[in-house]
Amino acid sequence: MLGDFDLDFFDNGRRRRTALGSGWGVRFEDVPPVRGFRWNKGDRSFAGWYYAVTTGGHVGYESWLERDRLILLDSAPDVVGIASQPFWLHWREEGEKRRHAPDYFVRLADGRARVVNVRAEDDVDERTAEAFAATERVCSAVGWEFAHVGVPDPVFMANLRWLARYRHGRCGRESDVVERLVEVFREPHGLRAGAEEAGDVLRVLPALFHLLWAGTLRADLGGALLSSGTLVHTSDGPAVGRQQGDRIHGLLRPRRDTRGKGSQMRRLSRPATVGVGDRVRFAGQVRAALAVSARAVTLAEEDDSPREVPLAVLLGDESFEVLGSPVRMPLPPVSLLEALPEHAREKAL
Q: Which pTM does this prediction carry?
């Protein structure tokens, strides 16, 4: 097995190709990518660089899905090293030359290594599946872990993207604010109420979000989007949300089948079209779409109050469906119109 595969990577700025048996001990978490990250007009994917506090540097990604996976890796307390596109894996299959560059090489705090391929289940064709299978065989032969990961939970991911804005250590450098927040949240508090008790909200909130990112404070990030009423407490309180290892950091492990007709992944991959005036089912209830943007849909609640729902949350809801094509709606009550943002008010009229 070790002689059937070659590793092709950069070593001190020079390209090096060696047999798997001779190269598997390289610290691949420190190597540069073997190929560039480019974005061409019209491409479905979007490439870029993510600043990881874990590494103190930028790590490349080739799609939003890979960017989300980087955020998840960066937030995982047991991850100490991350490299993107670390090497080309070369082998022959039925006489044909094959090669594959895994998306990420991850080093864990206990020294273990993990190779991660990121691809939505719907996008895994036969050739890709063969490449993933070959990579898994290689990992098994040299004692690395292997993971194929896809679309994460949309609510949890939306919350973590928000907290990632405050991942840098500078957000938590005011020690008096940090100490006060830890003191306040030793007893569970609503997010906004606790922030107000800790001091000036504009000064406190960046530190609060940083502590949630770092795990010093906890909240249920998978149950609902962060809001003023989200219950927050210190890490020595009951384990919820991202601190439940199997639920959150287990996203790196093999997942349950997501290819079914009603699966969340399929719904996210092929979203329905929602227009102003549509009747949609969300959270088990039928609601009217009052306004639609590229990121969110404003829905009418039962008490006629508007509610802006991020598009990822709407499409990720198990009960979501569009029940009817756009129709001319009667004008909403004046109180409802006044509560809408200006752009949404114009569309409702």
A: 0.69
